[in-house]
Amino acid sequence: MLWICRACTCAYSVGAARCPQCSSTDYVEEGTEMPKITRHGGPSYEDRTPATQEDVDRLREQAAESVLVGEHEAPDYDTWEYRDLQAELKRRELSAQGDRDALVERLVAHDEEHGDSGEE
């Protein structure tokens, strides 16, 4: 099972504190639902409706459209932890050395140069 970010459609692991790409905490679940048994018995997700494939497809389409028309917001790197900033810089094959301000500055400069996509 994966979580799909509603903001950028990034797929990430269940239980993560936030989306690793855009730091959003709004997600839908994709894949086979696993029962989460509570201490008192019974699944803990009974009141939640699982996301359907149509939901995931619609969210991906909306995110793609918003990127195409320039509605995509750059990630708020000021809220990221130091190790997350380093991991993102390494993913982009940039230097991950320096203090927090230097890392944020490097990511922002890279985003501006590459259109906020984080891709090369």
The main sheet comes to: 3 strands, antiparallel
**pLDDT < 50 stretches:** none
Q: What is the oligomer described by this structure?
A: single chain
Give the N-to-C terminal Cα separation. Answer: 28 Å
Relative strand content: 5-15%
Description:
The protein has 120 residues and is of the alpha+beta class. It folds into two domains: 1-73, no CATH class; 75-120, Transcription Termination Factor Rho, Rna-binding Domain, Chain A, Domain 1 (Orthogonal Bundle), CATH 1.10.720. The protein is built from three helices and three strands, in the order βββααα. A three-stranded antiparallel beta sheet has the order 2-1-3, with helices on one face. Helix 2 runs parallel beside helix 3. The two termini are 28 Å apart. The model has no long low-confidence stretch (mean pLDDT 76).
Features:
2 domains; 33% helix; Transcription Termination Factor Rho, Rna-binding Domain, Chain A, Domain 1; alpha+beta; 120 residues
Short précis:
Helices cover 33% and strands 9% of the residues.
